[in-house]
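TICKET: design request
STATUS: open
ATTACHED STRUCTURE:
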């Protein structure tokens, strides 16, 4: 009975009896896999569980880890607590894709090596070392130790499919002794980058726990091509805000001719754009902003793809527990910079492969009272709306499960602010610009909004019915909805 329920919804890997699965090489992974299998029927039956965002077959996930394109596959790992749909001791889950549209779940990649004194495997990155070996760097947390004061950076070596991993025997690869007498708190989340044939790593943390912060990104340089010996090169960048308690999950990479730093400071994720001096190992920021204005986006991680472009995924946070699953990753976003150093984000073009049959409306005049459009009969949708604001002061797009929906999903633009239900973000159009280009993705309980490539917002929403409508209204004048295109979205699995 259980087997039949599982077989309808689970990927092939999760169906094999444990004993027949060559991949399951140890007890820890076997137990984690069994727990995920047991929770999957409930998790996958939940109507709020997204279908076109990456998540685990079941249970809790948080940060995306180690995004890497390698040998024809886009690989994503993620923080996973396999034993419940709430946070707990972390493992690494794994998925891969050939085209960024369809994804395949893979066995648990990293587990805590309890025999080696490890209780959790926290966030990190994946890279290929100078000897061509796939390597994961991650933060290792020991049993009974506080992550604030005790952490080490460990490595694991992978096979060519990035499926089987073994811990590097010489762990830790980086320990606190590298810093001499200097104490770095919340020291974690290694991210490797390259510049001028040199290999560097950044880690997150803060320099003064007592004073409530001094969030700082530290930098290290590899001393051998196997990436097993590292030298501390100091503080790459200290966050200008005294209020930032720490810098989690730093990502540091070149975009065009500038350098970009992402940090997750226990609040909205920040980006800085500026210059990197590989001689002094210091970063000078010239512009800054927020990656996502919504309340439910955190700990993003980036991947460089074969054409040199860079994608980012974040953790969509804030789901309720008790449903057999909890957490997903955002859609992949393509990163670019504007001439004045602002980050631009657009949904990865490959997402269009998930579109079903299009419905389209053109030139709908909007003035005051609502115009209602019936949406395709699904609650997994992409909506593209190009709206000429003309004389309208504000415009509201409301997604409703029925005429009397008490909790419609409202997206409102007032000229200076974008509001998604109760979440607000500053947004103004360039001088003379009157066109609002919205890309809205609704994946059951997840909403992602992209506005003119400049503002993104991620928000958990009440799950719409599969027969929802879109109501549009203006205030203070008339607007023209030049083009509204809507697609039902297919599952990524
Ligand atoms: C960010 C974070 C990381 C840490 C991981 C643990 O959400 O706190 O700093 O490595 O999650 O799961």
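STATUS: resolved
RESOLUTION: sequence designed for all positions
ATTACHED SEQUENCE:
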């Amino acid at each position: 009975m259980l087997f039949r329920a599982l077989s309808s919804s689970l990927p092939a890997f999760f169906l094999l009896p444990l004993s027949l699965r060559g991949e399951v090489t140890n007890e820890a992974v076997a137990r984690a896999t069994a727990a995920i299998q047991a929770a999957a029927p409930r998790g996958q039956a939940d109507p709020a569980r997204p279908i076109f965002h990456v998540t685990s077959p079941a249970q809790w996930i948080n940060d995306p880890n180690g995004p890497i394109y390698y040998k024809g596959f886009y690989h994503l790992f993620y923080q996973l607590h396999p034993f419940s749909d709430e946070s707990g001791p972390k493992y690494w889950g794994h998925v891969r894709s050939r085209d960024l549209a369809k994804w395949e779940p893979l066995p648990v990649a990293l587990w805590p090596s309890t025999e080696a004194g490890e209780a959790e495997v926290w966030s990190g990155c994946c890279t290929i070392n100078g000897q061509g070996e796939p390597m994961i760097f991650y933060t290792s947390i020991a049993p009974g130790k506080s992550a604030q004061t005790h952490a080490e950076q460990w490595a694991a070596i992978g096979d060519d499919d990035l499926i089987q991993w073994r811990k590097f025997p010489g762990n830790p690869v980086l320990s606190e002794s590298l810093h001499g007498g200097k104490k770095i708190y919340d020291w974690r989340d290694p991210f490797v980058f390259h510049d001028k044939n040199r290999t560097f790593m950044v880690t997150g943390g803060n320099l003064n726990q007592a004073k409530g912060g001094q969030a700082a990104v530290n930098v290290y340089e590899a001393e051998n091509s196997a990436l097993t010996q590292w030298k501390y090169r100091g503080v790459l960048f200290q966050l200008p805000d005294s209020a930032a308690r720490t810098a989690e999950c730093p990502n540091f990479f070149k975009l065009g001719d500038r350098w970009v730093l992402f940090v997750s400071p226990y609040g909205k994720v920040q980006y800085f754009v500026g210059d990197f001096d590989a001689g002094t190992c210091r970063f000078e920021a010239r512009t800054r902003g927020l990656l996502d204005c919504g309340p439910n986006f955190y700990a993003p991680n980036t991947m460089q793809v074969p054409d040199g472009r860079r994608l980012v995924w974040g953790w969509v946070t804030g789901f309720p527990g008790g449903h057999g699953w909890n957490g997903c990753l955002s859609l992949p976003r393509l990163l670019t910079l504007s001439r004045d150093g602002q980050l631009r984000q657009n949904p990865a073009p490959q997402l269009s492969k998930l579109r079903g049959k299009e419905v389209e409306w053109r030139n709908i005049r909007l003035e005051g009272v609502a115009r209602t459009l019936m949406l395709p009969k699904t609650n997994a949708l992409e909506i593209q709306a190009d709206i000429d604001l003309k004389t309208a002061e504000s415009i509201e797009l409301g997604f409703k499960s029925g005429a009397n929906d008490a909790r419609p999903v409202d997206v409102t633009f007032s000229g200076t602010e974008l509001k998604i239900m109760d979440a607000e973000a500053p947004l103004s159009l360039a001088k003379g610009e009157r066109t609002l280009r919205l890309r809205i993705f609704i994946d059951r309980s997840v909403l992602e909004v992209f506005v003119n490539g400049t503002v993104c917002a991620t928000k958990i929403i009440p799950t719409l019915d599969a027969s929802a409508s879109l109501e549009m209204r203006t205030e203070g004048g008339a607007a023209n909805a030049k083009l509204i295109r809507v697609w039902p979205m297919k599952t990524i699995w």
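CLOSING REMARK: Residues 62-63, 79, 90, 122-123, 139, 188-189, 248-249, 298-299 surround beta-D-fructofuranose (CB under 6 Å). The first helix runs from residue 2 to 9.
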